[in-house]
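Milestone 3.1: sequence recovery, worked example.
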């Protein structure tokens, strides 16, 4: 009889993360179902994550990679541990030691991201551990001028791409997937981009209203793509979506412009205070911006997009 072979920690971690794979499913729907289950038990939902469910392709890849890195570290530092269940029993001790290791080489924000993957693997929560405090003033990644020279990116060659992102705030994945015919005008002549569920992050459909100043240009750009027989707004295959394009910084420019518009059109006078520097924003305007960006939480907008003081604070 063949001897049964104990699977390695790497194999165990890989199989567990694979069991959480819900890519292609609606994250919004899964969250609703999870919320209903929790509320039926008389509890409240504190996390934005659905336990045991990973819907984003990049999130799946990140969590798998981080889980494998973690168990390899465990194998090297806790050779007596052979099963994930053993790590779970000692998770606070082991994960806190791992955090101490990461602290020597990574920023607090990156460590929080790494431990999110570990928490998913171990079916625990980031709040269980002694994570380093995050300070938004320390963030430097993607907080750059999208028009500044950038190695590997030709601004002159991709002027239309940058202009389109600054006018619409579309994400990279949406630029890849949205079709020209989804840029429409309603009966009042308002330009809209109708993004459907399978094209958006988190599976959430939404309507994007381009910046008024550039709305007609966005509409005409889509019509020109349509006339040329192009089936997408931009083609990765044709080199129209280069790797080193400042996608997020350009999206932040859209956020600044849309917020300035929304203060006039959707301002309520109710105040939202930004953590860290105490800057104040109009909640109604933030809600309109959040809707256009495809986010649920106002805090995401002010922390990750409206980070530059440009003179329109409340």
């Amino acid at each position: 009889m063949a001897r049964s072979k104990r699977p390695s920690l790497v194999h165990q971690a890989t199989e567990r993360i694979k069991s959480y794979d819900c890519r292609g499913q609606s994250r919004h729907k899964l969250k609703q179902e999870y919320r209903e289950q929790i509320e039926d038990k008389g509890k409240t939902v504190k996390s934005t994550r659905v336990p045991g469910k990973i819907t984003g392709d990049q999130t799946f890849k990140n969590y798998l990679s981080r889980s494998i890195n973690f168990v390899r570290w465990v194998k090297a530092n806790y050779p007596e541990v052979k099963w994930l269940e053993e790590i779970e029993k000692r998770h606070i001790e082991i994960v806190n030691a791992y955090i101490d290791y990461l602290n020597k080489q990574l920023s607090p924000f990156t460590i929080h991201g790494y431990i999110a993957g570990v928490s998913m693997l171990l079916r625990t929560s980031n709040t269980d551990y002694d994570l380093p405090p995050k300070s938004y003033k320390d963030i430097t990644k993607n907080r750059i001028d999208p028009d500044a020279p950038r190695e590997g990116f030709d601004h002159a060659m991709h002027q239309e791409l940058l202009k389109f992102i600054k006018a619409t705030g579309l994400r990279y994945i949406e630029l890849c997937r949205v079709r020209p015919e989804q840029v429409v005008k309603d009966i009042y002549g308002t330009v809209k981009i109708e993004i459907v569920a399978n094209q958006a992050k988190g599976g959430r459909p939404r309507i994007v209203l381009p910046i008024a100043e550039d709305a007609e240009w966005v509409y005409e750009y889509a019509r020109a793509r349509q006339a040329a027989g192009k089936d997408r707004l931009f083609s990765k295959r044709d080199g129209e979506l280069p790797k080193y394009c400042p996608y997020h910084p350009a999206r932040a420019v859209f956020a600044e412009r849309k917020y300035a518009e929304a203060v006039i059109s959707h301002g309520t006078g109710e105040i939202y205070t930004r953590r860290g520097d105490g800057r104040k924003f109009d909640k109604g305007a933030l809600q309109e911006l959040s809707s256009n960006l495809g986010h649920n939480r106002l805090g995401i907008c002010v922390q990750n997009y409206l980070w530059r003081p440009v003179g329109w604070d409340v």
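Residues 141-150+246-314 form one domain. Residues 57-77 form the longest helix (21 residues).
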